[in-house]
Design brief:
Largest sheet: none
Helix content: 40-55%
Structural class: mainly alpha
């Protein structure tokens, strides 16, 4: 499977946040499918102070 977050007009610092949050979202989804329990917001991994 190929996953892309497209449409950025220019590279910005927030892109790193989004990439990492997508990773935590996909790991949570994997856990949900495998165990029946994921880690959705607000119980997800806090990676920085972006709101």
């Amino acid at each position: 499977m190929l996953f892309k977050h497209e449409g950025w007009k220019e590279p910005v610092e927030f892109m790193h946040h989004c990439s990492t949050k997508w990773a935590t979202f996909l790991l949570s989804l994997k856990a949900l499918l495998e165990t029946g329990t994921g880690m959705p917001h607000p119980d997800d991994v806090m990676i920085d102070n972006w709101k």
